[in-house]
Write a structure and sequence with these properties.
Helices cover 78% and strands 2% of the residues. It has one domain. It has 491 residues and is mainly α.
Length: 491
């Protein structure tokens, strides 16, 4: 069943222009069938994994001679991240995208985005991971520029240039590894590197991978594009960028390369933890002074990705589990916050917090879901963000990384202050000018926000069963390190 994660969105992307010619509404129906189908198969993948790791051999050729697709614990986690947020963003788009022209092109690009993201996650071949990364990147550049205003085009161009630099670094690293080990299968590269006599070349490739994937994920100091691209994109695409794209193209790919191909060590741990600490601190400090709702959220994306990378960089079982758990939680509450900002802009025609006010009475559902997401990102119990941050902080002190632990606590407090500002100025303070034209957004936009808010609450209340079911198998994949080769090749 693994190829279906690429076949469904790729097929829908090709059918979308035809559907748009027949009737405009067919695009919305087809796209949402695509999203819900992918979500259904992603949930089923949890059950598939219970009987062990799954490998699909394209054309029946066994690795390392043929291309393979792999379903392991980390794959299941990322499939859930991609397709939960993807399906909710498509549902939100039903009403939201009507203010744009050419919805058929929008849905075509969105389906290509899902095909690229799912392809990256299930790929067992390093070059095919790069191919799907480029599909994702091109769809992302186009969707950021979809509004075609000056702000969108400038942000998309900056994203394109820096994204191309990142892709070049990654491709160079892949090419150098290919020249050294003469294979592109991830497991076979790992097996070959275990007997490698060229540590300097491997170290250089690792540096290229870290720089390339850190740029894709928006870590400081590689974050210049992110604060422009996220606010400029349509709200559903902003949710995908922050909730899914930077995690899949950046964090997931980096973890797969470091842990399962090259191998994790103390030097890599030091680099990742310091990248995480710096991103946490600088991201939240840049966010606190912002008055543009979406730009504030964009800087918080940098900060929260810092938590994820810091936790994983600790390299301990609790740190990796906490980092992956925060990766999942962040996809929920940050996507919800971007959808909230899109709803506010949809109804008021502004994103400036200092020009808003009194929306809690005029937009009660948006206000309530925004409160849930704000408390989640601030780490208020018992919502989902509290548990993952708690695990990362405990792991930091257990690993004697006291600087990182205290930075995590301080950043959480500043994050709370930042989102108290959002709640006060956008929703709770008395509006200077009460407009009767402001009303709640349409049904499908509300439905997507409510579903994500319920998930933030549910994951927080039942975090331990979720940890055992999804997070622990994903963490075990990284903890087994280069034994990944043995699992895939059987040698």
């Amino acid at each position: 069943m693994l190829p279906i994660f690429v076949i469904i969105p790729l097929g829908c992307a090709f059918l979308m222009p035809i559907a748009g010619k027949l009737r405009q509404g067919f695009c919305q129906v087809l796209a949402n069938i695509c999203g819900l189908s992918l979500l259904f198969f992603s949930l089923n993948s949890i059950h598939w994994l219970k009987s062990g790791l799954k490998i699909y051999y394209l054309g029946g050729w066994q690795p390392p001679f043929g291309i393979c697709m792999v379903l392991d614990g980390l794959t299941v986690l990322m499939l859930l991240v991609v397709n939960i947020i993807g399906s909710m963003s498509l549902l939100y788009s039903v009403d939201y995208i009507r203010k744009f022209t050419s919805p058929a092109f929008y849905y075509t690009l969105f389906c290509l985005l899902l095909a690229g993201l799912n392809g990256m996650v299930i790929s067992g071949d390093l070059f095919n991971l790069f191919v799907f990364l480029e599909i994702t990147s091109i769809a992302s550049y186009s969707l950021v520029a979809f509004g075609t205003e000056a702000e969108e085009l400038e942000a998309a161009f900056k994203y394109l240039v820096l994204g191309s630099v990142a892709s070049s670094l990654i491709l160079l690293a892949i090419g150098m590894l290919l020249g050294h080990v003469s294979t592109l299968n991830m497991a076979d590269i790992s097996r070959s590197l275990s007997n490698s006599a060229a540590p300097d070349l491997v170290f250089y490739c690792l540096a290229l991978f870290i720089a390339g994937f850190a740029l894709k994920s928006g870590l400081v100091p590689f974050h210049a594009w992110l604060a422009d691209a996220h606010p400029a994109a349509p709200a559903p695409m902003s949710a995908m960028l922050s909730g899914v794209v930077i995690k899949t193209m950046g964090v997931y790919a980096l973890c797969r390369v470091i842990f399962n191909i090259i191998g994790f060590n103390s030097a890599v741990s030091s680099v990742l933890t310091w990248l995480g600490i710096i991103s946490m601190a600088i991201g939240v400090l840049l966010a606190i002074g912002q008055w543009d709702f979406k730009r504030l959220l964009a800087y918080h994306s940098i900060s929260q990705i810092g938590y994820v990378v810091f936790g994983i960089g600790l390299g301990t079982p609790l740190g990796i589990a906490g980092g992956l758990f925060h990766l999942f939680n962040h996809s929920l509450f940050k996507s919800l916050l971007f959808l909230n900002s899109g709803s506010v802009e949809f109804s008021t025609a502004t994103r400036r917090l200092d020009k808003l006010g009194g929306l809690s009475s005029q937009m009660p559902v948006t206000s309530a879901t925004s409160l849930v997401a704000s408390l989640s990102i601030a780490g208020i119990p018992p919502l989902c963000g509290f548990w993952s941050k708690l695990l990362i902080i405990i792991a930091a002190f257990q690993a004697n990384n006291f600087i990182g632990g205290w930075v995590c606590i301080a950043v959480a407090m500043v994050t709370l202050a930042s989102f108290l500002k959002v709640q006060k100025y956008a929703f709770n303070r008395k509006a200077k000018e009460v407009s009767s034209n402001i009303k709640e957004v349409p049904f499908f936009m509300l439905l997507a926000m409510v579903v994500l808010a319920i998930l933030c609450i549910a994951i927080g209340l039942w975090f331990w069963p979720f940890m055992e079911l999804v997070i622990t198998p994903a963490a075990n994949v990284l903890l087994e390190g280069t034994n990944y080769a043995k699992s895939i090749l059987g040698v």
